[in-house]
Each structure stands twice: as structure tokens, then as C-alpha cells.
Amino acid sequence: MSAFAKLSFGAVITVQIFVICVWLFYYRKNTFNFQQSFNNSIVNRKSATAEQRNRTYIYLERDAKTDDRNKNYTHPESVETEEGNKTYTLSTSYFNATTSTNKEKDSLKKCPLIPPGLAGKLKVDKTPKTIEAIEKKYEMLKDGKFKPKNCTARQKVAILIPFRDRESHLGIFLNHMHAFLMKQQLEYGIYVVEQTKGLEFNRGFLFNVGYKEALKDSDYDCFVLHDVDLLPENDHNIYTCPVDQPKHLAIASEKWQYKLPYTSYFGGVSALTREQYEAINGFSNEFFGWGGEDDDFYNRVAWAKMSVYRSISDVGRYSALEHKPGAANPKRNDIISKGKDRMWKDGLNSLKYEIIQKTYKKLYIHIIVKIV
To answer: 215: closest CA among 234, 191, 232?
Structure first.
């Protein structure tokens, strides 16, 4: 290589090194300035006054005064009231909200959808029990009602039982059902609605009365319509109401050889929400004597464009207590045939009754009623 070429190559290398040095110098200076600026911003935020912090956080209310904003804001955890049940208002420029808090209620979580400790198939004890013996067994009960202590029940359930001259059955029923319902972590009340002497037994009428009287006591979500001679054999048969359709619980009764007697059968034990019961105007009040009211009730559900939910037969099995059947209603078929025309004339809206006595006993609420 010539001397001139070597000189040119060395000049090029020198220029490149110079450019690299200049670039590194400015890069380090800018990096230092950026870091210093960033550190200063952190220091400024930490030492910022309340006014500056509020301007950053509450940026939507630029015209509001700092003092006014600070007065408006109250954190819910700092609210203390006499009973802990008052309404507090949480207000900032970011949102305005009024929230009610009940410390006693909120302290308990909702009970699980599937209650723990269910056994499935149960042993049904049909041995007659005295009311006194059952009361000693269930000392935690009061006024015929119960609610779980360790969680908040998902529904409040009224168990409605039409009744007349079945004292031995009632003892067996109460002994079995309280244990059954407690395991399902329900808040419930048992209403035994007894018809006075004189007229033939009217099951549908008694259900309507029980429905009305239960709502005078509490805002029940679900109403279980229950014959006193049927005892559930499986505690997975949950006594709650689906919100979208009525529920048939007793689909496999011992008295029907654990089979559904016919497709539209809706008797024994069924469950409806308040909205569903009122959507069909309850039961007809015209069925005196045995038979017909269940079929008419099923028809009302269909006319209201609802369908009946049924669980699998193994879950919906019921033991039956023996008794003499009541006198059949000779007019039942005629009343059923005219049911659609009577649906909004005969039911809850036409119910007339006189309460002779309403007693809040330990195990149940006893209602004695007269048809007027």
C-alpha cells in the first residue's frame, strides 16, 4: 500500500473515533439530565401539597376548591353510626354514590349453592312423636321459624301445610322436616293451616290462606305447598324455588309406587315463587272434597305460559303416611273444564276468610281459618 493510501485510511479511522466520542458525551449528558428530571418529579410528588395532589386526582372538577373536595370525601371504613345500619354517602369528583350498609347482615356470607354435609338418601322415621318431645329436640327453634347462624340463606321459604284431623301425622312430619330443612341451610317458617269444621276440606283454599298469612309475617321468596303425609327421602331435594318456572318436588311418591301417576300430575309437594303464585292467581277456591285442585293448578301454570321443573326421580322420592282418603269431589271434572274462564275470577283475588286463631308455636305457626 502506498504512503498516501495509508494516510487516508488513518484519517478515516480518526474521524470515526472522534464522532463516537462526541456521541457518547452527549448521550451520557442527556441520560443524566433525564434521570435527574425523573428523580425530581418523584421528589415533587412526595413533597407535593394536598392542593397539588388533589389537582392530579380530581381532574374533572377543576373549578372546585380543595377544601370543598376534601369535605365531600368520606371513606366508608371511617363511618361510625350508633347501630351500624345507617346510610352513608361517598362523594368525590370521580364518582357520586349512595350506599347502604348493614354490618350485621354483611358480616355473614351467602350460604353455598350446594349445602355442605348433605347425605343423599335418608332414613325416614315414621314412629309417632309427641310435640313436647320434638320441642326438646329442636330447642333452637322459635315461633315456627329458623335461619342458619353461620351464613345468610339464599331464599326465605314458607312451608304451607293444609290440615285437618292429622295430629299423629303432624308430629312425624315436624320431627323429620326440621332436620331436613336445617341441613339445607334455609331460612324458613312452617305454616299449618287448619280448616274449621262444617264444610268439606278445601286444600286449595287453605294454600291461598297460608300464602296470604305468611306474607304478613315476612317477605318470603319461595312457597312450598306440602301435604302433611309426605316425607322426603333424599336431602338433595332442595326446598328452594327456581325463578323461571314452578318446581314439582314429589315426583316419586311411595303411594304411587314411586312413579309419576300421570304426566300433568302436580300434587303432593310443589314450590313457587311469589311472582309465579300471583301470576296464576293462586289456587281455585271452588274445590271442596278430594281431588281436582292440583289438576286445575297445573292448568293455570300452563295457561300462564310456564312449564313445570322436575328433578330426577331418585332425588324426588317421598315416603307416605297411611290414612283414609277423603270423600271425592263429584263436581271436580266440571269445575276443571271451566277453569280457564274462572282463572282471574276465582283465586287469590276472590279469597274470603276469617282467622279464628293464629298462634306462633315453637315448631310451627298454627292458623285456624273459617271459610266465609
So the answer is: 191
